[in-house]
Amino acid sequence: MSNLFVTLAAFVVALGSLVTFHELGHFVVARLCGVKVLRFSVGFGTPVWSRRAGRDGTEWTVAAIPLGGYVKMLDEREGDVAASERHRAFNRQNVWRRSAIVAAGPIANFLLAIALYWVLAVHGMPGVRPVVALPPAGTPAAAAHFEAGDVITHVGPREVRTLQELRWAVLQAALERGRAVLEVERLAGGVDTRTLDLAGVASEDLDADFLSALGLVQWQPPIEPVVAEALEGRPAALAGIRAGDRIVGVDGVPVERWDTFVTRIHARAGMPTVIDLERDGATLQVSVTPDSEREGGRTIGRVGIAPRVDREALQRHVVEIRHGPLEAVGVAIARTWDASVFSLQMMGRMLMGQISPRNLSGPLTIADYAGQSALLGWVPYLGFLALISISLGVLNLLPVPLLDGGHLLYYLVEIVKGAPVSERAAAIGQRIGMVVLFSLMAFALFNDLQRLAGGS
């Protein structure tokens, strides 16, 4: 229940803040252009909170359906406007001002992402060094002759310092369906290159454990299966497992490493499981039913225990990437640009059938990721907010009627032909836009429900 509460709270905060920032972009530029704003709404439908403020008596509203928002401006197309205020109507503004007001929403989302990435760059982003284990046979990494202990330092010309940067760089290369040349520092010493064949990457792998599908498995120091802590109220503690216990088997199968134990527990979500223990020289068995939790789009089992680890060995493989305030501006802009271009590439390849539409995520998946990132801490949560803000900005710039990009397309036509788009053409465009948007929403929700039902 606590995880569900965190997920709901993280989702509401994320959606509310991103929508508010988007609409503030429209609001601020509209006011700068002299347009009167009648209502600023976060959410659609029946208002649950409303207040009037400002010299224009703008109505500030929070509505019942939290999947978006809008800024309602004075407009002669939507009602009578007093002669004294017609100069403040949106439809009376020239095409450049209308374009600026409409574009301000998505631009606000990009600026928010830049600000969030700047905070993270200045604070420092912890990460794990991109050290790989021996790849499984038959994977592209095995064919490229990766060795255990290889430290990947470059993907093409791009330097990578963390596993997250490695994943991002290889994911971008995979969109080209070609080959990626990776530079590595070998465990035995010296620098070498590995050519990774990405031509056979399946589209469904882009939404799963992408690096593992390629055989780039993260190296982990061997951790003995000894319990350091059993969290109160979780299945392990309730079953009597306590600090100092050594796990020697799961359902009769011997366990010699912590990662082996974790793999087996992950596969036993919601199922009674027998764990063999050694305690003070004696052996005993306990029955545990792992909790079912969502992680990375799949359901896994957890029992609520932590291992005894060699902190010094782990620290040698942990890095923190930190930048000065001025340098961080460039880093934040570059990250926002890369993520925006990547989003457009994914959408384009999805339309061309090169990427499965199953990669399209809806509100349930976004809520799941919001909860997961929030549980990990404020740094991952801000990174999640930045990515969703970029996605919202890119989505709204698509040339689909009803979206900001659709309005900008109309204004471009107006600039070229010297006259506004006809009312009939605009009405037809609106109907097409509604069909497209509702179809996308329905398909994204269908994907979410399939992931929940399939546990993947």
Q: What would you note in describing this structure?
A:
This protein has 456 residues and is an alpha+beta fold. It contains 13 helices and 16 strands. Helix 9 (325-351) packs across helix 11. The mean pLDDT is 86.
Which structural class should the secondary elements be placed in?
alpha+beta
Q: Order of SSEs, N→C? A: HEEHEHEEHEEHEHEEHEEEEEHEHHHHH
Low-confidence stretches: none
Q: Helicity level, as a percent range?
A: 40-55%
CA radius of gyration: 26 Å
Major β-sheet strand ordering = 5-4-6-7
Taking the alpha carbons of the first and last residues, their distance comes to 21 Å
The total number of structural domains is 3
Précis, in short:
This protein has 456 residues and is an alpha+beta fold. Helices cover 45% and strands 22% of the residues. The strands form six sheets. The chain has a four-stranded antiparallel β-sheet with strand order 5-4-6-7. The chain has a four-stranded antiparallel β-sheet with strand order 10-9-11-12. A two-stranded antiparallel ribbon has the order 1-2.
